[in-house]
Amino acid sequence: MSNTLLRIYPSELKMPFELKKQNSGCMELVNKTDQHVAFKVKTTNPRKYSVRPTTGVVPPRGSCVITVSMQAPKEIPADYHCKDKFLVQSVVVKERTSLKDIHPDMFSKEPGKIVEEFKMRVIYIPANPPSPVPEEEEEEEEEEDEEIASIDSDMDYEYKPPSIFDAASRQQGYTSGSQASYDEVENSKAGLSKYLDENKKLQQELELREKMASSVGGFSDRKRVFFALKCSYTMDFL
After folding, report:
1. CA distances from 126 to 67, 101, 129, 216 (A)
2. Which ranges of the sequence are coiled-coil (predicted)?
3. What pLDDT digit, counting tens, does each position of 153-186 carry?
């Protein structure tokens, strides 16, 4: 038989359970009628539980919260099973009924009097249950890891270590847009070395021809010989 006076939440009293620590649970009584309804809360184990308030009056369409405190348990029951139960009794009362007017006889069953009863059992739940990680957060972390891995891969792909030729080019003053090839640099170095050697030989030959010219033909012959040799070596280098 469903209750017509009070709606009680929840239908089972869930009590946090923790060894050697007192915990509390709550229930809410909601008046479904346009009349004042008095209530009384009972339990099968009054020494174990403290109920506040145990009695009261709920105004029309109003509500009342009941707090149930459990003494600190000394041991864990088998399978966390609890045999304790609570009983909530309710009855319609006059408009001006106060807490002082409530007495035990008010909830006694008599002919023509409606007294509703709601029984609820106690269920133990862990006091500090582990908080599971939402699946959305796990997926976001995986996506972030994939993005980081992708970025690292791109960086490794784009990175090019400087070569020996790049270092040599910077020392010679080459820019990235007009760098000579490695072979061209080597050929230029070889040509320069050859030119220096031939220039040295030219100087030696000139000195020899100067001596010969001074004794035979004079300064004009020496000048013509120097000009001819210089043009010959310059053409060879180019």
Report:
1. 18, 40, 6, 124
2. 185-212
3. 444 434 444 544 454 444 444 444 444 455 665 6
